[in-house]
Amino acid sequence: MRTPRPFRITAALALAAASACATNPVTGEREISLVSESQEIQMGQQAAQSVEATLGLVDDPALQDYVRGIGAALAASSERPHLPWRFGVIEDPSPNAFALPGGFIYVTRGLLALMENEAELAAVLGHEIGHVTAKHSVSQISRAQLAQLGLGVGMILLPELAGLGEAAGTGLSLLFLKFGRDDERQADDLGFRYALDRGYDVREMADVFAALARAGEAAGASPVPSWLSTHPDPGDRVADVERRVAALNRSLDGLTTNSAGFHQRIDGMVYGPNPRNGFFEGGWFLHPDLRFRLRFPQGWQAQNLAQAVYAVSPQQDAIVELTLAEGPHGTAARNFLGQEGIQAGRLSTESVNGSPTTLAPFQATTQQGTVQGVVAFLDYGGNTYRLLGYAPAQAAAGYERTFLDAIRSFASLTDSRALAVQPNRIDVVRLDRSTTLADFNRSFPSVIPIDELAIINQVAGASSTIPGGRYVKRVVGG
């Protein structure tokens, strides 16, 4: 007798749930977990490699060590001290922080620029540690796999066929896991406790939430999802912190804030986009350190990441991408076109504005279908660059001229102004007397608007009085 399909699905779900339960280290409750701790760590490690390669870490060993030390101390007193915790500062000007499975946690320099002391940093790191200790991402992945099982994907019952390799290889897509509001509140609770356990003044937690709320609309475009996008209302979070503080029913005098140490570490930190890593101007992408320029198609949406710069068509059906390649241009081209699944057209060689170049049309089979395009490898300035333009096969012919125009725009950057451009940086000043933000800005001018200056210093506005002895940030250079 054939078992009815709905019963088979229910039985499979029950079997999966019964055989894959684990104890949550934070709550002590049993819950379904289809991801083992070793798999969680493996997924996090691979995602962390993608994050660091794609987004890049801030090149400041002292700052990295500072954040790493605070995070490690908080994690050591958490429910999962044995994880291979890793903390880093990402080269991104927008205010963000995120946690990957297995204990890999990052904050952006844009978020550090909003903070006023070490206690605020500890609160944010503690919050992200809470996501890991409470296994929020593991729970999400498990729920997604159970949903697949409910649709008839029964391989999840056999760990060796579970397809976790695909999940482990998702890299940056793990950043887009959306935690529910309950998870976020639990992470806030845990971050509060972890920071308090390490002797930090947890009242500062409310200030960083308020600063994030004010900076929300002013945050620059970021490849990382907004830190506030799934979090409870900032006003509610401030009130929650105040309730937690009141419930302690104890004096918080003498707890650590460490404004001086924090400001010392961020003094001189790049503020906003760093043009030395390349910038867009007048339709061109200019890279002063590598001394080249490239024109992307007009009207296309461009993004500059640590390992690549690319632009996507308005219809989102074509892309032009520039990356570095290994080996001289001819060898690099043959290696690329010799990959399985790629069919190469006729190779040609030419000089693109003085750079020896190998160029070829190609077709590739992907999981999403067949794509066609043009690839070029150029030798320039001691590096080999790969310029790749492609689109779905049915649309590729209409973009061929666009791809070739972009490739042949690659040229040496000779504009002395562009070559000499420098990033804006934070300059920390300690006030010797009380003053308003407006008066401070007159004495120590910044290159950013005063409203923005108020946000990064956590004061209400230009007329706000700042007490003597306080550290105040301004932005200089550029």
Instruction: Estimate percent helicity.
Output: 25-40%
SSE class: alpha+beta
Largest sheet: 8 strands, antiparallel
Low-confidence stretches: 1-19, 145-172
Can you tell me the overall shape?
globular
What integer value in Å does the Rg equal?
26 Å
What is the tally of helical segments?
A: 17
Query: How widely separated are the two ends?
Result: 77 Å
Q: How many β-strands, per DSSP?
A: 22
Note the beta-strand portion. 15-25%
Q: Please tell me the overall pLDDT.
A: 85
Number of domains: 3
Tell me what you see in this structure.
- This protein is of the alpha+beta class and 478 residues long.
- The N terminus is likely disordered.
- It contains 17 helices and 22 strands.
Task: Give a topology summary.
Elements: H1 5-19, E1 21-23, E2 30-32, H2 37-54, H3 61-76, E3 86-90, E4 97-100, E5 104-108, H4 109-114, H5 118-133, H6 136-150, H7 164-168, H8 181-197, H9 204-215, H10 234-248, H11 259-266, E6 270-271, E7 279-281, E8 284-287, E9 292-295, E10 301-304, E11 308-312, E12 319-325, H12 329-337, E13 342-344, E14 348-352, E15 355-366, E16 369-380, E17 383-392, H13 393-396, H14 400-407, E18 411-412, H15 416-420, E19 424-430, E20 435-436, H16 437-443, H17 450-456, E21 465-466, E22 471-477
Parallel strand pairs: 3-5
Antiparallel strand pairs: 1-2, 4-5, 6-19, 7-8, 8-9, 9-18, 10-11, 11-12, 12-17, 13-15, 14-15, 15-16, 16-17, 19-22, 20-21
